[in-house]
Amino acid sequence: MAISESRIENVHALAKGYVDRGALPGYSCIVSCGEDVWFRAYGMRDVERRLPVERDTIFRLHSMTKPVTSVALMMLYEEGRFQLDDAVARYIPAWANLRVFEDGDEDSWSTTAPERPMTVKDLLTHTSGLTYGFMYSHPVDAIYRKRGIGGGDLQAMVHALADIPLRFSPGTWWSYSHATDICGYLVQVLSDMDLDVFVHERITGPLGMVDSGFTVQPAAVERFAAPYEYLEDGRFARQDDSEARPYLTRPKLLSGGGGMVATIDDYHRFARMLLGRGEVGGVRLLGRKTVEYMTMNHLPGNQDLAAMGQRVHSEAPFEGTGFGLGFSVVLDPAAANVIDSVGDFGWGGAASTYFWVDPQEELVVVFMTQLRPSSSYPIRRQLKTAVYQALVD
User: Which of 48, 66, 258, 364 to pair with 180, CA 20 to 30 A apart?
Assistant: First the structure.
């Protein structure tokens, strides 16, 4: 496999165009294919202070935290701490009597019994029946907002969710949700370690991901990219600086679904570990078969997201895309309407970050910026085209 030195510059031209017209503050991108590695950074990590994006800039991962948490939980699976078809209530007894929303609103509702109990696998695949309050697409989302789900700590979240109905019976639908936060809680229960400690000792530490974690270290604050938000006129505005404060001290809520930060090289090393089927640079986190199992489609009947999910976010195309244990998985590039390979897997974050791994092409791509929401522009689809057209051997 080889990257054309001239054609890969289309990636920079694409991203630079967004920056130059004021649509993105800045970006960095790594593309590695076999031994070839390409990197570019352009624009500002802090527009107001005129600080450029550099190789060691630290970014909010948001939902690109989810694959890290999924790996953490599967490391414990390999140790025999649980089975994927175990009922979640086995580890969270307060969830033994979860019900499914039937009718009503955020103030009053009726429920019915689920068709079967929620399993650990349901959490990893987002088929659990949980949701996010920011979805604004179902009365249960409104209940989450009213109850303040996502505030407090993990234990408080688990306790609060015990009294809230599920959106649907587990296994019958796909819905993006707090499920990976609950995976992080299970990591704590099963390992008897706080999530941030487990991730440091078992994942980021061994991989040498020195700037990755749930906090930005004091000496690294200057490298922390500022957060920006899309405006309707195509420009962006800086979010309040208070948005950065939760990252400067250990957070009360250790969010396995969205709480980590990392540099691009740190996350690239994590992704290279996945390409290596659990191993990179002599460090092995997972067995080969475990990674292969995690990155196959686990949606019932080998369905895609279009058949099982609602179009409430843009982390991946819905047609031709399935979901594994922590990652989207490409099933049919033709149906997805984007250049791709069957078996590609990856995910993105709310601030327009994105990564994918293509085992067929020995390809890893990591793209970093800080613009919310991720649906502002189709840059992820454009990025795939720009990368794949550069593969010439």
Answer: 364
Percent of the chain at pLDDT above 70?
Answer: 97
Helices (H), the chain: 9-20, 66-78, 120-125, 139-147, 154-161, 179-191, 195-199, 205-207, 264-275, 288-294, 305-308, 333-336, 379-388
Confidence (pLDDT) at 245: 73
Give pTM, 2 decimals.
0.96
What are the tens digits of pLDDT across the range 34-90?
889 999 999 999 999 999 999 999 999 999 999 999 999 999 999 999 999 999 999
Give CA–CA dist 158/391, Å, rounded: 46
User: Is the CB of residue 147 less than 8 Å from the CB of residue 164?
Assistant: yes
Which burial class, exposed, middle or buried, applies to 338 when counting CB atoms under 10 A from its CB (0-12, 13-18, 19+)?
buried
* 3-state SS string for 172-224: CCECCCCHHHHHHHHHHHHHCCCHHHHHHHHHHHHHCCCCCECCCCHHHHHHE
All residues at 6 or more sequence positions from 158 whose CB lies less than 8 Å from its CB, including other chains: 92, 94, 95, 182, 185
| Number of helices and strands in the chain (H, E) | 13, 17
Strands 371-372 and 228-230: parallel
Per-residue tokens: 107: 């103030």
Cβ burial, residue 353 (10 Å; 0-12/13-18/19+): buried
